[in-house]
Amino acid sequence: MCGIAGIMTTDGRPPDGHALDELERALAHRGPDGSGRHISGGVGMVQTRLAVIDLETGGQPLYADKPGGGKAALVANGEIYNYIELKASMPGVPFATNSDCEPPLHLYLRHGVDFSSRLSGMYAIAIHDEDQSGDPSGGRLVLARDPFGIKPLYYSETAAGFVFASEPQALIRAGLVEARLDIDARDEVLQLQYTCGRRCAFQGIERLLPGETLVVERGRIAHRHRRPALPEGQTRDISRAEALKELDRALSHAVGRHQRSDVPYGMFLSGGIDSSALLAMMNRLNEYPVHAFTAGFDDPAVADERALARAVAHAAGADHHEILVTERDFWRHLPAIAGTMDDPVADYACLPTYLLAKAARRQGLKVILCGEGGDEIFAGYGRYRRAGRLKIFGGRPMRARGVFDGLKVFRHRPVGWRDGIMRAETEAALSGRGRLQQAQAADIADWLPNDLLTKLDRCLMASGVEGRVPFLDPELAGFAFLLPDRFKVKRRLGKWILRKWLETGLPKARPFKAKRGFTVPVGPWMASHGRELGVRLAAQTCITEICRPGAVENIYAAAGTKNSQARWTLLFYALWHRVHMEGADPAGGVFDVLEG
User: Fold this and answer.
1) For residue 436, what are the CA distances in angstroms to 197, 208, 264, 402, 499?
2) Where in the chain is the domain with CATH 3.60.20.10?
3) What is the mean pLDDT of residues 398-427?
4) Parallel, antiparallel or unpaired: strands 121-129 and 206-207
């Protein structure tokens, strides 16, 4: 896993060396094991490396000779899980390394911009295809992102040229784009806790969409196309026995590929269905005990799943590591977490995820397998079942209400904050899918990449740890998505077929217990300093410009934990704004950063 960035000028002049230096420095945390640089004509690319596969010769950029003369250069952030199979399919190709990222370069030379359709993995790839005509502004830059959007990539078309990076903060730190707030994106963050589609919180910076490939010529986007994440077609007619057999095979295949690594790996274990299923399969495939990491809380306001996770880990013979997340951690680490979330995700699970990554790194691990995606592909959320029912039977759209609806906190009611969701819902309904599949597809288009996977990427890469998500293996995800509804939801329980598999694979996980959801006790933690927090937040410029006088103090001074989600979102947004828009140092505690 790595960080990548680059520049393509409009006039063919060499890119600014200082800007490339700053891009590299801004992405150093993503790749603490080394760096590399490519400069040719009007293109410059940098990569910072977290060495996971081919530790000796896998440094980047990677180069390949073009059939007609000249070279193509590649930098990548990600893992190509089918790289062994891809190499075997290209006999005679003179591979110079054992890197998983070299096959995509040769696929590009063979198949052009359609090269990514043959990849199975998580990736953001940049290829500079040099032009041999003698025109320094010739050639093209090709960017590609994996279909589920597991790995991030951001870009901007500026007056001087096209720029891109794994994180938007790198473009800003390098002086290539100004840090200006996108007001519509801000409203999405406040109401949804994340932003949709291409939109980033910074004006002028956009995301490469999941599965998208861009071709850039003379510093401007020439064309783009997109690879879908989900298969088309109707649900399959399959028996329960056949479904369980295929699930076992697909899960074994996915986890086996996701364990390909030249460094030690482990997994995050919550005690839930998804992570327990991962542990069960990892235990089957590994000769040695699996390193499993669990976070828990000592606050009675939320369920602590450490006991269940401990029992599951013991049953699987795992080497189990537990961390206790406390209120002190909340006040101490939240500014640093907001600092890592340059693309803001106000998901309170960022706190335990961030601390688990630190714990894994302390144990010497660079790779962690995680359960993200399981709820989306197997239909685990209750909101899917509600969205699938007719209105007269209690059905309702997903995310019909925003975090602040009805609270009368804002000076002006946010409008348009649900436009991105509606676009995803419209696209999800175009293929003749059933109601349940439509709900899943809409979440997979926006919620999954822009909330869950962004949170995972930033929280783990802040510690130099690579997060892998086997449930988003294309074969496994495609199998699960096309299952009949009855194998996803039964007796008001989602993920029914995965639970049934786990009933045999690891029964200690108690797979048919009701889903409780993962909750962090931010409500009582904020309530312990409610009045002081309300006063500090009300004094922030970014809060006073959007909130009614006295509304912020009132919502934090109220007794108990009512409106905890709104309190949390305002706090996270204020800290994010202080760090990324105002330049505050995130090294202090919450009150230090708000006061400064």
Assistant:
1) 21, 27, 38, 22, 18
2) 2-226
3) 93
4) unpaired
- Answer whether 114's CB lies under 8 Å from 136's CB: no
**Could you tell me how far CA 121 lies from the centroid of its own chain?**
14
Average pLDDT for 104-133: 93
Residue 330 near residue 522 (C-beta atoms within 8 A): yes
Confidence of residue 70 (pLDDT cuts 50, 70, 90): confident
Mapped onto helix, strand or coil, the DSSP state of residue 39 is strand
Q: Which residues of 415-445 are buried (b: 16+ CB within 10 A; e: fewer)?
A: eebbebbeebbeebeeeebebbbbbbbbbbb
CATH class of 240-403+417-509: alpha beta
DSSP string, 111-155: HGGGGGGG--EEEEEEEEE---SS-TT-SEEEEEE-TT--S--EE
- Bridge partners, residue 79, by sequence: 122
- Best CATH choice for the domain 2-226 from the list 3.40.640.10, 3.40.710.10, 3.60.20.10, 1.20.1090.10: 3.60.20.10
pTM: 0.96
Distance CA 189, CA 193 (A): 4
pLDDT of 57 above 90: no
From the list 114, 153, 185, 147, the residue with the least C-alpha distance to 472 is 147
Runs of H (alpha helix) within 341-400:
350-362, 374-378, 382-387
Question: Rounded to whole angstroms, how far apart are CA atoms 196 and 534?
Answer: 29
Instruction: Look at 453 and 237; give whichever has higher pLDDT.
Output: 453
Residue 187 confidence (pLDDT): 97
CATH 3.40.50.620 residue window(s) in the chain: 240-403+417-509
> Does residue 458 or residue 390 have the better pLDDT?
458
Q: What is the DSSP string of 201-220?
A: SBTT-EEPPTTEEEEEETTE
Q: What is the pLDDT of residue 363?
A: 96
70 CB burial (10 A radius; 0-12, 13-18, 19+): middle
CA distance 142 to 470: 27
Q: For the CA atoms of 285, 317, 475, 87, what is the dihedral angle to 10 degrees?
A: -40
